[in-house]
Design goal:
Layout (H helix, E strand, L loop, with lengths): L2 H6 L9 H12 L4 H7 L4 H9 L6 H40 L3 H21 L18 H8 L5
């Protein structure tokens, strides 16, 4: 295929397909690596890379798997947000009718916020793996190696 034909194809650009760019952007915003996405969608990291770069066109089945992977997470979060947004004012109104003050509703809201902070903390990955090109090198001098091995009270 000639370069002029590639530019005339719908959706073709110099840096991949529109779908690939959107997939890469979405994946980056959620902090997922290509390998994480590949494992979640039961494919290879190489295939995800090829889709993002425009070197491969995803099949309908692959698009459905990508949508299911992201859709289930997004759907669950949105359901919780919608239910909380609908129930919050109702609970605050009932609380005010029963007690004559909004302090109970504020305590409930603060408790829900603490529960969500705990849930986010528990859902976070336990270890952060180094990404090639982004990891900082550790110092290799003798003094710094001793400092890394010794504790704060040594």
């Amino acid at each position: 295929m000639k370069a002029s034909e590639a530019w005339s194809r719908p959706g073709a650009t110099s840096n991949g397909s529109a779908f690939g760019r959107l997939l890469k952007d979405w994946r980056g915003r959620r902090g997922l690596s290509q390998l994480d996405l590949a494992l979640a969608t039961r494919t290879t990291q190489r295939h995800v890379s090829f889709i993002e770069s425009g070197r491969a066109t995803p099949s309908r089945e692959m698009i459905v798997r990508l949508a299911a992977t992201y859709g289930s997470i997004f759907g669950t979060v949105m359901l919780a947000a919608i239910l909380g947004g609908a129930a919050g004012p109702w609970i605050a109104g009932v609380s005010y009718d029963l007690t004559g003050t909004y302090s109970t509703a504020f305590c409930i809201a603060a408790g829900c916020s603490l529960i969500s902070i705990l849930a986010i903390w528990l859902a976070a990955p336990g270890t952060v793996r180094a990404v090639a090109g982004r990891a900082q090198r550790l110092p290799t001098s003798c003094h710094s190696q001793h400092r890394l091995r010794s504790g704060p009270f040594d």
